[in-house]
């Protein structure tokens, strides 16, 4: 093994996946008719509007971690993934829209 690489690996703290720190994601400015967490959660659908009171502010909506959503807000896995996916899409410039779910077909015998 190259001695430079070996030195770098030994200096990294245990449990660190990479030498670079995770960059903080930017909080996008509200745009259009979406000006607060309630409007954002209403727009993404899937009963997310009922969770609006759990987010303190616009910044909190975009900076809340999955662990915080689980422990402090008691959101289910589906709710966390849905909100986190949409917050990332919003950062990338995609305006929220409702994606309908397929109805579950009843089994017939």
Automatic annotation (TrEMBL):
What are the record keywords, sorted? Mitochondrion
Which SMART domains has this protein been placed in? IGR
Q: Where is the Small ribosomal subunit protein mS41 SAM domain?
A: 37-93
Compartmental location: Mitochondrion
The main place the protein resides is mitochondrion
The entry's cellular-component GO terms read: mitochondrion
Q: Which domain of life is it from?
A: Eukaryota
Q: Which family does it belong to?
A: Belongs to the mitochondrion-specific ribosomal protein mS41 family.
Entry protein name: Small ribosomal subunit protein mS41
The organism of origin for this protein: Linnemannia gamsii
């Amino acid at each position: 093994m190259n001695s430079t690489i070996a030195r770098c690996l030994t200096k990294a703290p245990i449990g660190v996946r990479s030498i670079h720190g995770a960059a903080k994601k930017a909080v996008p400015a509200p745009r259009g008719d979406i000006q607060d967490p309630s409007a954002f959660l209403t727009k993404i659908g899937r009963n997310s509007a009922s969770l609006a009171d759990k987010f303190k502010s616009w910044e909190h909506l975009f900076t809340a971690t999955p662990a915080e959503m689980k422990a402090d807000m008691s959101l289910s896995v589906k709710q966390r993934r849905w909100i986190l996916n949409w917050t990332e899409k919003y950062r990338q410039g995609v305006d929220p829209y409702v994606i309908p779910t397929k109805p579950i077909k009843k089994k017939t015998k």
